[in-house]
Design a protein that fits this description.
The chain has 72 residues and is mostly helical. It contains three helices and no strands. The chain is 85% helix and 0% strand.
Length: 72
């Protein structure tokens, strides 16, 4: 299940990167709404999970993304 979710996430990020390059849209149009959605959703979970989620998101997705992108 984690492999499928990470594959979908990596595919979506690569697609957005290609769309950004082809259209010349600023990266701020992708990053700011993403952070806004994450901050809004963080209001609905217990405080203990917020720090864990933001910290582990970068740690866990970095090494997995590299393996998926290099294999493609």
């Amino acid at each position: 299940m984690m492999d499928h979710c990470m594959s979908i996430g990596v595919a979506a990020s690569v697609a957005l990167a290609m769309l950004r390059v082809l259209t010349g849209v600023s990266i701020h149009w992708f990053v700011i709404p993403g952070y806004f959605i994450a901050l809004v959703l963080s209001r609905f979970v217990p405080d203990i999970f917020i720090g864990i989620a933001f910290d582990s998101g970068g740690v866990a997705s970095g090494p997995i993304d590299i393996n998926l992108l290099v294999a493609a």
